[in-house]
Amino acid sequence: MSRAIEIAPSILPADFARLGEECVDLEKAGADRIHWDVMDGVFVPNITVGPDVVASIRSHLTIHFEAHLMVMKPDEIAPLYIEAGCSTVMVHAEACTHLHRSLDNIRKLGGRSGVVLNPHTPANVVAHVLDVTDHILVMTVNPGFGGQKYIPLLDKIADLKAMVDASGNEIDIEIDGGISAETIGECAAAGANVFVSGSALFRYDDKAEGVAELKSIAEAAR
Ligand code: DX5
Ligand code: ZN
Prior knowledge:
8-stranded parallel β-sheet, 8 helices, binds zinc ion
């Protein structure tokens, strides 16, 4: 049974002066999740929102919040975003000395555990953590900024899908970076089911149309 196609808008392109309203509008437009891009200025050369910002917006929406932690100390930071209302918390494999423990701890705190792979990181990095993983995020840009050029990694996505299927575990595969009407189809065909979209989605005058179009292209492609 294939896993549901979901669209997770990134908050990066939002007007931060109206961030709460923008998130409410994304929910009204049919977004399945809000993708919180958390950056500490060290793991990536950019800084974004803290847990208090997420917590202040949590009660205004009902959809799933997911935190993409682009931080050097994920074990310290992850609990803060679970507390703030993120159901899924994703840590970069590249920032974890003990990835299995980091993922297991997220689960122990009540969150869904996610592992993020930068473009250069091979799929087999997750081979021995699938038993403590609920979500895999594949970066198709180098993290730190929205609006970057998409890096095709279809073999990697297909390899991850094969590993997940062989494991028998229920794991979402999400793609993050440069996802648009032009790129989402090939990623869905390769095996992904959740899609972050930032700049491409925010280019639509009507975000509901954007969410619907991205979803229908992904559905048709797989
Ligand atoms: C980049 C972030 C992505 C990015 C996606 O570090 O993790 O979520 O904001 O933005 P677009 O869709 O514009 O590539
Ligand atoms: Zn992200």
